[in-house]
Amino acid sequence: MAPSALAEDCPAHYLIGYHYGEPVSAGEIFLHAEVAGIYNISTLAAFRRRGFGGVMTLAAVDSARAAGYDTVALRASAESEPVYRKLGFRADGWFTEYPVPIVPLENRGYTTREQLISIGFEHVHVENERYDGPQSGVADISGVPHYFVRLNSLFEDGDEFSVWPIDDESLALEQEAWRLYVKAWDAEDFKPARLDELESLLEARRATPPATARTMFAQWRFDERDARHDDSGPAYMMRWR
């Protein structure tokens, strides 16, 4: 998780629910404009339909009220609305979702990897942190794999990053860690011990830019992949300048 997401002044707060010492559920509260929004209530597949999601939702409400927020809101689907009504929520508006195209570029034609490559976007090997856009990871810059760490705190179209080349050993370890992460994410499983070992080994290499690190700007765009990611990297590309 990005350091900015854990900062004391971050409006987002995160909750983890445990069952006999085992983390099984999670949720997020976002505090803004005198309203606490509840997001991303989730439960591991093996523990679903046992009430953990409801408990996590009520814990989020309690946390919001403890922070001084009397109004708590969430967005429910037609299927989940009865569940939230039982927890004490009431409908206060309606929304309709429409499918939209991937964020367009200049002429709305650039959506496939080949098209993005043709206008200068490059491959992202690894995403180590993501919060309102890529925070850190490994991406090609002029065809050479580099570590990148975002410097500006607010996401804009053209973010500032510190970048430096990654050596072959670190790249191999990062790619191994990425594959383990993707496998655990897709299986909704816990992180394997090997992933913890790799993250501990790579922590200093990721977080400490050398004196030769450069400052560059980048844009990012999703490609045509339907999934959030695959073994080759996250489902977006970056263009550097």
Strand and helix layout:
Layout: H1 3-6, E1 12-19, E2 22-32, E3 35-43, H2 52-66, E4 71-73, H3 81-86, H4 113-118, E5 124-130, E6 134-141, E7 144-150, E8 159-165, H5 168-186, H6 193-207, E9 214-222, E10 229-230, E11 233-234, E12 236-240
Parallel strand pairs: 3-4
Antiparallel strand pairs: 1-2, 2-3, 5-6, 6-7, 7-8, 8-9, 9-12, 10-11
Helix pairs in contact: 5-6
Give a written overview of the molecule.
This protein is α+β, with helices and mostly antiparallel strands and 241 residues long. The protein has 6 helices and 12 strands. The chain has helices spanning 3-6, 52-66, 81-86, 113-118, 168-186, 193-207; strands spanning 12-19, 22-32, 35-43, 71-73, 124-130, 134-141, 144-150, 159-165, 214-222, 229-230, 233-234, 236-240. It has a 6-stranded antiparallel sheet, with helices on one face. It has a 4-stranded mixed sheet with strand order 1-2-3-4, covered by helices on one side. It has a two-stranded antiparallel sheet with strand order 10-11. Helix 5 (168-186) packs across helix 6. The longest helix is centred in the last third of the chain and has 19 residues, at 168-186. The radius of gyration is 20 Å and the shape is globular.
By DSSP (H or I, 4+ residues per run), the number of helices equals 6
Strand content: 25-35%
User: What strand order characterises the main sheet?
Assistant: 5-6-7-8-9-12
The secondary-structure element order is: HEEEHEHHEEEEHHEEEE
Largest sheet: 6 strands, antiparallel
- Measure the end-to-end span: 26 Å
What percent of the residues sit in helical stretches (DSSP H or I)?
Answer: 25-40%
Shape by Cα distribution: globular
Unreliable spans are: 100-108
Name the average pLDDT: 86
How many β strands by DSSP?
12
Radius of gyration: 20 Å
Which secondary-structure class do the elements indicate? alpha+beta
